[in-house]
Amino acid sequence: MYGSGQPEFTLILKNEEVVAQLFANIGLRLLEAYSNGDIEIEGDLQRFIRFGFLVESALPRMSIKEKAMLAVMSIRQRNRLSQSARNVSHHYDLGNDFFELWLDRRMIYSCAYFRRPDDDIETAQKQKLEHICAKLRLLPGDRLLDMGCGWGALAIHAARTHSANVVGVTLSQEQQRAAQTRIAELALGNRVEIRLQDYRQVPEDGSFDKIVSVGMFEHVGREHVLDYLSKTARLLKPGGSGVLHTIGRMIEGPVNPWIHKYIFPGLYIPTLGELANGMSKVGLNVVDVENLRMHYGYTLDRWAAAFDKHAEQVRQMFDERFVRMWRMYLHSSAGTFRYGYLNLWQITFTKGLANDFPLTREHIYARELSGDEESYLLSQQGRRSMV
Fold it and tell me: In 320-330, which positions are buried (b, 16+ CB within 10 angstroms) versus exposed (e)?
């Protein structure tokens, strides 16, 4: 027992041999041991993560051997044009059937927007889509680029509720296939195009009125931060605006090695300073910054609960180790947003100065989701629940 009162969690070491390995690189080896079933954590996984942050300064430093191993892994995973698709496929091409089990009906795999802590995930994700579109100030006929469009939810919403013309790019074949199916069902082929394309390959004709990126920038890589921002500036019309929605941190530091190795190869989490400095170098002007840190904690809570509900189906798709690995990923991520170093930035920017920008944020909260999209989503609920 550590501390007093009722225990928040119990750590059970099931394999003596693994104990000696833990302290060489506890951030990697402890979570590997959980995935492999060598340790068990009974109770609240997020409070276990919180305890890790509380005692972090007292833990032994990583061995030189482990540092060298991680350095080699990081070099191999760098997001060169030839490597980025493999890094994305490792996570996002696990199968649409898998993600449909525990995401919302729209298949949105990024931080939702909660007006109340008890909002369900469908409501919160709907609110997020409109929150972003309002920040973009989308107008009928605007040409919008969605860099890292996922399964197409934002692109579809922007076209249906704001009459925007949208180009979405993704490196996931599974995402492109599902997005194109939904676009065809909604007869939106004249307004929405989903490309299997790296952001670096989008033609630079400066023809986009608005640019948005939701949950994709984390996969750009540290060495490509300025490349990405420069590309954004070249694609955006003078006076155009954009929203960058990304996980971030206040102080520079490495990504958790277990997440880097098993969940998101090539991941890099930027600081707010890096983003602001990079934007200043390429002519992008920061208009507004919002931190949705707790919103991501709530989002991950919903995902983790849905994942646990369907754990047996996931086990049949993959295996027990995969279930344990993803359960730890979802709960540990929620814990890191609540108790650790992770933030969620929504950065609104313009190309150059835009003096017509609203003086207040009132325009962000003015719109509601249109009824016809809601009717379509309700009609799809039964079909997806059969999966």
Answer: eebbbbbbbbb
Strand partners, 351: 284
Q: Are 217 and 231 in contact (CB under 8 A)?
A: no
| Cβ neighbourhood burial of 357 (10 Å; 0-12, 13-18, 19+) | middle
- The CA distance from 369 to 367, in Å, is 7
For the stretch 277-311, what's the b/e string if a residue is b when 16 or more beta carbons lie within 10 angstroms of its beta carbon?
ebbeebbbeebeebebeebbbbbbbbbbeebeebb
Per-domain boundaries in the chain:
9-75, 81-385
> Please, what CATH class does the domain formed by 81-385 belong to?
alpha beta
- Provide CB contacts within 8 A for 108, sequence distance 6+: 125, 128, 129, 150, 151, 153, 154
The amino acid present at 274, given as its one-letter code, is E
Beta bridge partners of 245: 214, 346
pTM of the model: 0.87
pLDDT tens for the chain, 387 residues: list them.
Answer: 566 667 788 888 887 777 777 766 777 888 899 999 998 998 888 888 888 786 665 555 655 655 555 555 555 556 555 566 677 777 888 999 999 999 999 999 999 999 999 999 999 999 999 999 999 999 999 999 999 999 999 999 999 999 999 999 999 999 999 999 999 999 999 999 999 999 999 999 778 999 999 999 999 988 899 999 999 999 999 999 999 999 999 998 888 888 988 898 888 999 999 999 999 999 999 999 999 999 999 999 999 999 999 999 999 999 999 999 999 999 999 999 999 999 999 999 999 999 988 888 888 877 644 444 554 444 444 444 332
In order of 211, 230, 231, 319, the CA distances from 236 in angstroms are 7, 10, 9, 45
- Contact of 272 with 289, CB cutoff 8 Å: yes
